[in-house]
């Protein structure tokens, strides 16, 4: 971040930036609230050893804005927020530190809702919850939704179906070939779903044990980690790390669709243009991997967590993906931009409706009084 913080806040229209300091427990944290048109600013708490305070502020702001888009595109009524703690998650954590942060979050009175993220765990969320009710991601025993990876994988499958429909005129996975990168929490669920749907799957992971187990259990093929993206398949499904779509991998892709859970798949925005030029349908990561978030935040809806409602909403990722593909077709816009547009249009529509609601109303009694 260069120049003034207020310039940066103005450029992307942030609402709030909160600095939290408690020297008695060594807490230095930043809470960024981007846009609360759709609902309270929501996003996980990250703990990281930042090179500078400005780096930490920039990360909180960038991630909060990302959450605004993610919720808006997913049809969830939440705004974008993020909290970052400056510190080493391996050495600097304590109950007191998280409880202190919990009290800061509590002061915001529900304007910011948190959960776990890189460097924080469900255990840390329990400490926050001791001080504030504004914690979404919690263990099932604390009233949370529990593991979210199955819902994430189910959502990816729905998005993949919309892409298959677009490319092949059928959403069936029967006989379709899929290259699956990563067999972790989401990838292993993905594998089970794909095999169940009759897809021919080739897998890869840097963890040889996970590959061996997948091959033994499902009889799928396996290739070396550096070869998985270059398989000649219908779908490449990245479920490992970010940045997989880059200058090196893009010319090697031999698939028709990229649809997977990994966050930040495009190393740079221009790679979103390039993948379009290659004629490959790309399912924007933050849309297709929103299933876990939709599932997790269902407990904020009326009546608390309802698994059936949560999974119905996750299945709507298919409709969202279909809308993006329509924008791509009708307006000639690459899918990664179409996702941003969809999010921006939803926020603008809700903002306009709210403005209409906020107009002063003249009741019948007032009319009589003025007669
Ligand atoms: P995970 O850590 O459980 O699994 C990642 C897997 O990828 C591991 O098995 C790891 O060994 C493997 N891997 C790492 N580098 C690899 C490489 N070069 N080639 C092949 N395999 C490699 O993580 P996860 O929770 O399954 O998440 C996977 C991705 O999806 C991440 O990018 C994550 O940010 C994203 N995501 C996850 C969720 C969720 O519900 N867990 C939700 C949204 C997005």
Offer a few descriptive terms.
371 residues; alpha/beta; Rossmann fold; 2 domains; 6-stranded mixed β-sheet; 6-stranded parallel β-sheet; 45% helix; globular; binds nicotinamide-adenine-dinucleotide
Could you describe the 3D structure shown?
The protein has 14 helices and twelve strands. The protein has 371 residues and is of the alpha/beta class. The chain folds into two domains: 5-66 and 78-140, Leucine Dehydrogenase, chain A, domain 1 (Rossmann fold, 3-Layer(aba) Sandwich), CATH 3.40.50; 149-343, NAD(P)-binding Rossmann-like Domain (Rossmann fold, 3-Layer(aba) Sandwich). The strands form two sheets. Strands 1, 2, 3, 4, 5 and 6 form a six-stranded mixed sheet that branches. Helix 5 (149-168) packs parallel to helix 12. It starts with a helix and ends with a helix. The mean pLDDT is 93. Bound molecules: nicotinamide-adenine-dinucleotide. Nicotinamide-adenine-dinucleotide binds at residues 148-149, 152, 181-187, 204-207, 210, 225, 239-242, 261-263, 289, 292. Nicotinamide-adenine-dinucleotide is lined by residues 148-149, 152, 181-187, 204-207, 210, 225, 239-242, 261-263, 289, 292.
